[in-house]
C-alpha cells in the first residue's frame, strides 16, 4: 500500500513539474477582452496635476501605450492592486508602456493623507491627481479601474469589473507592440 501511495505522489509531483515547464518560455498571455465601452476606439487626452507638482499630459509623451489605473484611498481592492501594479511598472516601461496611477480625490481631500495611504500600501510612485473625479467620471469605470491608450491617445482597452493588474499589463503590452488595435 505504501508503495502505491509513493508512486501516486511521485506521478503527481512530476505532473506539477511538467505543467510548470510547459509555461516556461511561452509567449505572453493574451490580454483579457476589453469591456464594452463607449470610449473604445475614441481619442482622448487630458492633463492632470502631478503629486510632485506640475502637470502631466495623458497619453504620456514618447510612450507606445499608456496604462491608467484609477484608484481611491478608501478602497481595499486598490490597496491590493497598486503594489502589484508598481511591481509590474518597471517591466512595462521597458516595453514602452507608461503607467499612470490616477488618484480620484474628494475636493477637500488632503494630499498628505493620500501619500500616507500609499506608504501604508507600500507604494512609492508619483501619481496624478483627479480632484473631484471629472476624468474618472468621463470613463465611467469602477475602482480600481484600468484603461489602456495607444500613443495617439485612442482608447484601446478598458478593464471589466473583474479585470486585474495582469490583464491590464497584457493589454498595454499588446497595444505597445501593435497586436491590439
Could you explain how this protein is built, in words?
The strands form 2 sheets. Strands 5-4-3-6-7 form a 5-stranded mixed sheet. By secondary structure, the chain is α/β, with parallel strands linked by helices. Helix 2 packs parallel to helix 5. The chain is built from 5 helices and 7 strands, in the order αβββαβαβαββα. Strand 4, helix 3 and strand 5 form a beta-alpha-beta unit. It has a single domain, classed as Glutaredoxin. The longest helix has 22 residues. The protein starts with a helix and ends in a 5-residue tail after the last helix.
Helix/strand layout:
Blueprint: H1 2-23, E1 46-49, E2 55-58, E3 65-71, H2 76-94, E4 97-105, H3 111-121, E5 128-131, H4 134-139, E6 145-150, E7 155-158, H5 165-176
Parallel strand pairs: 3-4, 4-5
Antiparallel strand pairs: 1-2, 3-6, 6-7
Helix pairs in contact: 2-5
Brief summary:
With 181 residues, the chain is an alpha/beta fold. It is 39% helix and 21% strand. The protein has one domain: Glutaredoxin, CATH 3.40.30.10.
Amino acid at each position: 500500500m505504501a508503495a502505491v501511495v509513493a508512486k501516486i505522489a511521485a506521478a503527481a509531483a512530476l505532473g506539477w513539474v511538467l505543467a510548470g515547464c510547459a509555461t516556461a518560455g511561452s509567449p505572453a498571455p493574451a490580454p483579457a477582452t476589453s469591456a464594452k465601452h463607449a470610449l473604445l476606439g475614441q481619442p482622448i487626452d487630458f492633463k492632470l496635476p502631478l503629486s510632485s507638482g506640475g502637470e502631466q499630459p495623458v497619453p504620456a509623451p514618447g510612450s507606445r501605450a499608456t496604462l491608467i489605473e484609477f484608484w481611491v484611498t478608501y478602497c481595499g481592492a486598490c490597496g491590493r492592486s497598486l503594489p502589484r501594479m508598481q511591481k509590474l511598472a518597471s517591466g512595462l516601461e521597458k516595453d514602452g508602456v507608461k503607467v499612470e496611477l490616477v488618484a480620484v480625490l474628494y475636493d477637500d481631500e488632503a494630499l498628505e493623507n493620500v501619500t500616507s495611504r500609499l506608504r501604508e500600501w507600500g507604494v512609492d510612485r508619483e501619481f496624478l491627481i483627479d480632484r473631484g473625479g471629472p476624468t474618472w467620471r468621463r470613463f465611467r469605470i469602477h475602482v480600481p479601474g484600468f484603461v489602456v491608450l495607444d500613443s495617439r491617445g485612442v482608447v484601446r482597452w478598458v478593464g471589466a469589473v473583474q479585470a486585474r493588474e495582469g490583464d491590464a499589463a497584457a493589454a498595454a503590452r499588446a497595444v505597445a507592440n501593435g497586436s491590439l488595435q
